[in-house]
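Sequence only, no structure available. Ideas?
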Amino acid sequence: MKKLIVLLFVVIVASVVATVVAAVMSKNKLSGMSDEEIRELLATKIGTKVGDDQLASIQDAVIAGVRKGVAAELAAEDLADDAADEAADATDEAAAAAGDAGEAVVDAATAIIEEASN
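Reply:
I predicted one. Tokens follow.
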């Protein structure tokens, strides 16, 4: 009985993983297609099972979802680039501040040495 439950659990986990992988691969496939190609694909897959109005609304929803995903990926890339630029700017500013602080220390040390020499 215990082996049956473990086997059932393994089968359920494997099917969930397979479903997620299939969904990701399908979305990647659709993101590379034009709107008309997506409409044609959906019409051949489900066109005979639903009415024309439902097919059009499904096509519109799928296209909007795919384009939203592509736009989100582009936005994420832009945000990552902006963050990298800001980090580089902050690093440059920190280096400049450290250089200024180093110069101030050298100037102070020089002044102390000159004062001690007199």
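The two ends are 95 Å apart (CA to CA).
Hope that gets you unstuck.
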